[in-house]
Specification:
The complex is a heterodimer of chains A (271) and B (230). Chain A has seven helices and two strands. Chain A has 271 residues and is an all-alpha fold. In chain A, helix 4 runs antiparallel to helix 5, helix 4 packs antiparallel against helix 7 and helix 5 packs antiparallel against helix 6. The longest helix of chain A is centred in the C-terminal third of the chain and has 45 residues. Chain B has eight helices and no strands. Chain B is mostly helical and 230 residues long. Chain B has one domain. Classes of the chains: A mainly alpha (271), B mainly alpha (230). Chains A and B meet through helix 5 and helix 6 of A and helix 6, helix 7 and helix 8 of B.
Chain lengths: 271, 230
């Protein structure tokens, strides 16, 4: 089993796969001419994933240093020390939008071309985007509690982020409760497009909704101190790298899942 | 009449005839809307709520929650009955453009949910002591545009949800987040109408619902094809 895992992780294909079926040679492990068989480029993906892993560590540490040490403390009425969460909160919000944007593009791509990799990209981006969106929704209230005196307000930006979260959580519920087959991929692509079409309408509606209630607190983000801007940029660099690393990991996981399913199908066929 | 319109008419006629003979969906939906109204009345102690607040804030909210909840019952049924006797396969074999199937089902749902609304509004008016007679045309316009959007996105998502293992449970999970903008706009407009405020205040909300309707009817016509391949 260990040998098998190593074979798969190294990406040199311990088991040969042909058209989704499996031929096992010499007990199934490391047959010589099996090396060129798999076309899922696992080794390359794994290498890219490792590279991103190595990249994230120094970047996150640097971003933390800039956010926690180098950036000046914010005024008390904008949250004081808690304001430092801003340097990660905003980049994660951008990363969430990026992720949902990728879902839209990949969903359209899948419906147009039907290639499996489009669907895998949409799924990976939805999960990664939703994770970022969750972090936004968790870090926001922490700051709001100190700056506005309440964990939550029905402000336009907060509300639209929440609705966005609900839309893509529903998308993942759909994927979670259907067998991974051709149908769910089409369904998910349709839902990915509907969800994205709705985003601008949601944003407009909650903005009008709130401007009718002028007592709503709206954050003043203009006029960032230069060192704060640097910290924000470092945060963006770190968070986008984390986002990319997670996305690559999730795509790699998808490829591993596909291969395991193919192997399992082959084993069943043999029995 | 073009073949496309004839196909839409045939699907619509089939759904209405089916409903007319059983009246299952209409009865359960109207009864459910009544229950939501009564539960709301008790849980918010409606008898002690100020009439202006009821007309402008709570009442519109109740009305649209009742429409949304009972509407999902109808939408779920819309494709459950197609899947039951293998009717969906027959629909797919029919030599018509799939968008006609979508349009027919959507219009059927629009009429069904609209009828439930027509039954619910007088009950709401009596139980919540809100006068609706003076603003009936405005209310009808909001209800029509809102329900059109609900039916468009609901029909599309109902086809999608009925193919999953969760079925009835999945539809509201997918539909309600997408439904938020129209819910906001429709409750605002209903509040303005019931509160007797000038109609000009609500123009941009009407535009928003109209834009939503156009976007999702178009999306439904274009995307429905992808949901009917097995």
């Amino acid at each position: 089993m260990a040998a098998k895992n190593r074979g798969m992780a190294a990406g040199d294909g311990g088991l040969a796969i042909e058209n989704g079926g499996v031929t096992m040679k010499d007990g199934g492990v490391a047959a010589k001419h099996d090396r060129e068989r798999p076309h899922d480029h696992l080794a390359a993906w794994l290498a890219v994933g490792r590279a991103f892993d190595l990249l994230t560590v120094p970047l996150v540490i640097t971003a933390l240093y800039f956010a926690m040490v180098r950036a000046p403390e914010a005024a008390g009425d904008t949250g004081g020390i808690v304001q430092r969460v801003f340097y990660f909160h905003v980049p994660f919000a951008m990363a969430a939008f990026l992720g949902f944007g990728i879902v839209l593009v990949a969903s359209i791509g899948f419906l147009a071309h039907g290639r499996r990799s489009w669907d895998a990209t949409a799924e990976a981006a939805a999960e990664t985007g939703l994770l970022c969106c969750t972090i936004v929704l968790l870090t926001g209230p922490v700051w709001a509690r100190f700056a506005w005196g309440a964990w939550w307000t029905w402000d336009a930006r907060l509300t639209s982020t929440l609705v966005l979260w609900l839309i893509y959580a529903g998308y993942l519920v759909l994927r979670a409760y259907m067998a991974d087959d051709a149908r769910v991929r089409r369904y998910a692509a349709v839902l990915g497009i509907i969800g994205a079409l709705n985003v601008p309408i949601v944003y407009l509606s909650v903005r009008w909704f709130r401007t009718q209630h002028p007592e709503t607190l709206i954050s003043k983000r203009g006029g960032l101190d230069p060192s704060m801007a640097v910290a924000l940029r470092m945060g963006m660099l770190a968070v986008f790298t984390v986002f990319a690393a997670l996305l690559v990991k999730r795509l790699l996981l998808g490829r591993l899942e596909t291969r395991v399913a193919a192997l399992r199908a082959g084993l069943d066929a043999r029995e | 009449m073009s073949p496309w319109l004839r196909a839409v008419g045939a699907i619509l006629r089939k759904d209405l005839l089916l409903e007319w003979r059983s009246r299952e969906a209409l009865t359960s939906m109207a009864f459910f809307a009544l229950l939501v109204t009564v539960l709301f009345g008790f849980s918010f102690d409606a008898g002690r709520i100020d009439r202006d607040i009821m007309a402008e804030t709570l009442g519109p909210g109740l009305l649209w929650i009742a429409f949304s909840f009972s509407g999902v019952l109808g939408l779920n049924r819309s494709f459950a009955i197609e899947r039951e006797g293998g009717c969906l396969q027959a629909l797919m074999l029919a030599p018509v453009n799939r968008s006609a199937v979508f349009a027919g089902k959507m219009l059927g749902n629009l009429l069904l949910i609209g009828l439930v609304e027509v039954l619910t509004i007088p009950i709401f008016s009596i139980l919540m002591r809100v006068s609706v007679l003076s603003c009936l045309p405005r209310l009808a316009l909001v209800a029509f545009l809102g329900t059109l959007g609900f039916s468009a996105v609901g029909t599309l998502l109902s086809a999608l949800a009925s193919g999953s293992r969760l079925r009835e449970v999945l539809l509201p999970l997918l539909l309600y987040p997408v439904w938020v903008p129209v819910l906001i706009a429709a409750t605002q407009l209903t509040g303005q109408a019931l509160g007797g405020r000038p109609a000009a205040e609500g123009e941009r909300w009407l535009a928003l619902i109209a834009a939503y309707d156009i976007v999702f009817i178009t999306a439904g016509l274009l995307l429905f094809d992808h949901l009917l391949e097995e």
